[in-house]
Request: fold
Amino acid sequence: MNEILRKSDAWTRREMMSFAAKTFLGVGLVPGVTAAEAFVGSPSRRPTARNVIYLYMSGGMTHLDTFDPKPEAGPEYMGDLKAISTKADGVQISEYFPGLASQMDKVAVIRSLQTTQGAHEQGNYYMHTSYTPRGTIKHPGLGSWILRHEGRTNRTLPGAVCIGGGSRGSGSGWMESKFAPVFLGNPNEGLRNSVRHSETSEREFNDRLALANAFDEEFHGRYDQKKVRAFNDMYADALRLMRSEDLNAFDIGGEPGNIKEMYGANSFGQGCLLARRLVEHDVRFVEVTLGGWDTHNNNFAAVEARAAVLDQALTGLLKDLDQRGMLDETMVVLATEFGRTPKVNQNDGRDHFPKAFCGLIAGGGIKGGQAYGASDEYGMDVAENRVLIPDFNATIAYGLGLPYQNIIHSPSGRPFKVANNGQPIKELFG
Amino acid sequence: MGQDAIRQNKPYNQFVYELVTAEGHWWDNGAVGYYMRDAGMPLDNMSNTIQVFLGTQMVCAQCHNHPFDRWTQKEYYELAAFTYGVETRIRPEEVLNVSDDLDKDSKKREGRQKYDRNVRRALNEILEPLSFGATESQKTLKLPHDYKYDDGKPGEAVDPEAPFAQKLASTRGSERDKYAKWITSDDNPRFTKVIVNRLWKRVMGVGLIEPVDDFKDDTEATNPQLLDYLVRTMQRLGYDQRKFLEILYNTRTYQREAFSGDYEPTDYHFPGPVLQRLTAEQMWDSLLTLTIPDPDAREGQNNNAKRAEQTRERAKELLAMGKQRILALANEVAKHYTAYDEKASAIRAELTKAQAAEDDKKVADLRKQLRQADGERDKAVKELMATGTGEGGSAMMASAMMEEEGMSLFEKRAMERQKEIEAAEAKKRAEEEKKRAAEAKKAGKKVEKPADPDAKWKGYDRNLVRASELPSPAPNNHFVRVFGQSDRDTIENASTEPSVPQVLELMNGQMYNQVTAKNSVLMQRVAAAKEPEQKVTAIFLSMFNRQPNERERELAEEQFYQHGDERGALNLVWALLNSREFAFVQ
Reply:
């Protein structure tokens, strides 16, 4: 039964068409009308985004001190922090983001996010997967969903990359490991170990591989198991990668100094720069993590430091994508697990707050310069147009043209969808 | 401390009891780290405890009755009430007993928010050594304001109560004592089951109950009689894990060859262990054993005891300074914060303008100014703190290092710890050296070098130590993390799933260089063997723990005849390292 289920959803007609387009035409998306829409009448629509750069603010980013300031709420809520006007009419953000203020015409801020999870692990997982954690199954992250639905555009490079750690919900979950993102620590190091030892010639390297295979013959005979085969697959992937010219997508060393500087001389900034390079080489999903948002103590000092890094990197990224004409097809998403208590606590900090928080989406067909939804006057609750986590993720899926209503079955036969039961916010699109 | 407990083979139930009841500053009792990890999240700490030690997931019931299990939100709160009073953070005002002074002070002032905040922030920094640990408070847990069930009202106080319809083992002692006794009791239906199941899984590759941390009322072991037997055995052994493992390792099930099929509970009848990939730590330790002599004896650089000692000293100094001097210092420090805040606000206003005008040069310049102002403030504060507390300054240093991104809190701590210890050790060595030189000079003798206990590891990278001696978790890109070591952010987070980076590490990584260095244990063995035949035997025995068969021997010796002793050996080692047989336990 499982086998039948898997087969039936392995190749939906839409996937077939999309795969065919890639293989035969050598393109991923045909501008104008896609194969999918023309032939199938997919539940989704024409994709406006090809790739995603997903910036994850780990620890729970305060909404009041970032993109949903409440200048009228008083110092008990806002400390001394001011709100500033931006290039988007009527959209104010906190003064910690002087750079982004000039880019808000490209950005939609969503101020009515709400989650059901108040602890980091669960909240982070929920944001990444649209499902709450269960002891019995692990859910895949968005990167894996994209690859599962549409495959890689660049057949050599990994289809999804996580820079700076990723999280438990960034992995391939119940999907096969070939849909898993590659995790990178330091963006400056390129893809570690992707070049053979310098004293080994190519011929010697190939001889060694052949030798290893010869020694393994009996082992393979005895243990024809899934986990052994999965390991073999990784060798095939790794070798293809080593032999590819696209490998230099991982090397930010060649970027000019002023570009590197524009993103900020820190790992998040350089991670965003690397993300741009990877997307340029048709990596479909790149996640970059910025930690340190769990500001239970000394909120303002801590947020100021985080915001400086984020402001420079995100400003740089949006400008760079725009100048290269990539912003139209690259969706830049900023997400976090929950907001933080609007009222400042006795340690001058803010605690976890799932009831109302904010996120950003820019590019990839999103109409910039708008604020969608609102929290109440103190940021204590959603006041209009509530957006649940699955809705937020369905919006990303919708932009990508993923069939967000299609059910895919896990190997154990359980039904899942890319954004659970989320409904996209279609108003965000231009 | 955890390491000591394992070295002493402390009975498991006692180990858990001591962890759950830990109290004191962290530098006095490392076990309080168990509560500090979940600082400010006492409810999560409870559900973690229950998940780790009782294999039971209650986390859903934090916000509502558990949808797939029997736990009610009320039960969750009753259980959390046992440890809700544990405070991991002692606020500066409480350390100094000055909250009244601060309030009085601030009421007199205009713009008190800023004043308050910066003085408080300075106090936080200064008093850091006294601020962390675990203490009991009288805080009571109340039901949440949106509580929606009939068995309680929103905001109602909750009394501690344990589920599993079982009487508490003790009625005397603190609430936490009762809680720890209830968890570790022989009568607790899950405590012993969870640990024997985990150990069985470690040995055989698959638990009798899977997953090992999600037991439910209707969960059945694949072999219930065996599980019962293991539980009785563990209790009979007084929770001696070493003796228990000895039994498992001597079973015929373990001694047989690994099961050749894919594991399915219905097809597996204990013919042998299931095929397991080496864990990240086993992989590392295997390669280490091929590289350095006597790996078990070598200590890591990660020495918590020394750091605890230093913090204890700083804490003492602070206490000796007294309230008035500390407050005065905090006021001085706060002035720097306030001055910076004003300056930064002005620069940022400029920045907004420059950004809008697309003046990239000016933007870059203003960003630089911001960083400079930030650096100057940190430097000034650091100097002040150093004069104020003698040793001092390290709290600021630590917070400056927090700027390093992409690192978990554990990693940051490990890094701070590492740096402090290295500096202290270098200082100590230099002082000792100086002292010896002075003494020798006085006595008119030649300066003698002391015997180095680490001489046998000279020439081997100092980070080549057992996985258990590495900082835990190891830094993000460390070999063991690449191979799936847990980041310790969540429970049961280690993995043996293969990945491209793992394969790249084996083919092109640093560990190959270490294993094939001239001074490695393996290469010395190879060098000592005269003929290719013996060299091949040495490599197979070292890496596969078996003799090569005839076909393999022919292939291997061929390498030596064709490429010479050096390249032949390297090719062979590389090939075995990159074979599946090396990575899996069969």
